[in-house]
Amino acid sequence: MIWLTWRQHRKLAFYTLLGFLVLAAVLVPIGLSMRHTFADLGLAGCLRPSELSDAAAQTCDVGLRRFSDRYDSLNLVAVLLITLPVLVGLFWGAPLVAREVEQGTHRFVWTQGIGRTRWALVKFGLVGGAVVLLAVGYGLGMSWWVEPLTRAAHEGRLGVIVFDLQGIVPIGYTLFAVALGIFAGTVFKRMLPAMGITLAGYIGVRAAVEMLARPHYQPAKTQTFPIEGGGIPEGDRGNWVLAVGIRDADGTMVAENTRIQCPPGGKGPDGRACGADLGLGPGAYNWELYQPADRFWLFQSIETGIFVALAALLLYLAVRRVRRIA
Questions:
Q1: Can you give the pTM of this predicted structure?
Q2: d(CA 101, CA 209)
Q3: Which residues are CB-contacts of 90 (< 8 A; sequence separation ≥ 6)?
Q4: pLDDT tens across 169-179, in order?
Q5: CB-CB contact of 90 with 195 (8 Å)
């Protein structure tokens, strides 16, 4: 059974490995270029603003802007890269059962002394193991590749796109995509419908978890800082900011999704005090709701656990469905 599974999937495995090698050949030079630029601009010393003089801080601001201007276009590449797990689900998971049933080859296998449960466990186990190895390599490679981007970006590793690319979450995403494809194949028993359901289901679940669940893995923290004076607190860099606003002295929200930063005693063009155009009185302050940067690995673990659990449930249901296929 193991030999048969390898014979069936060796060509797909070869093309998948070839695709990853091509991807590495494209991304590794870009990653090395980003690291060289990061070092040449001296940005490693800019990540602790409290230790910088005013002149050094201005130099760092210029360097960070130059780095961002040069590599901002890579955000589009990152958006494409986060689709790789679902592609594995489409081409590895969806055909695993659906192609066998669509072509009728399942009847031959199941009448040669190989039970349905054993067939399913061997195929699902071998494909799942291969997928985990691919996902581990993908996660490690992407973590290395995006590191300069996350170090230069204000939102750090908790940023929406870069969080999905690195660490251990690609393992959960890929396992879920493959398991969803396998389950869809046991329900629809034809490849194209199974692939369509896999794509739609993956996008729907990923979007729901990212927008509805991830911000609440841990209670968010709040911090405040005055509208005049020192500006944003030191620890703000790398935090995932969920909401910002300006509140009056009594805590009433005056303006959402905005901040005011004025020098001490600063006045507007009309000579009025800072924030007077918003009706702010004495004691008004900036407010923000955020998830701290040091929760990155905790959030990675929680999200990976969610998708691994969903994958396990889908595979269990798929095995039960295989037993009922005519």
A1: 0.84
A2: 32
A3: 177, 181, 195, 198, 199
A4: 999 999 999 99
A5: yes
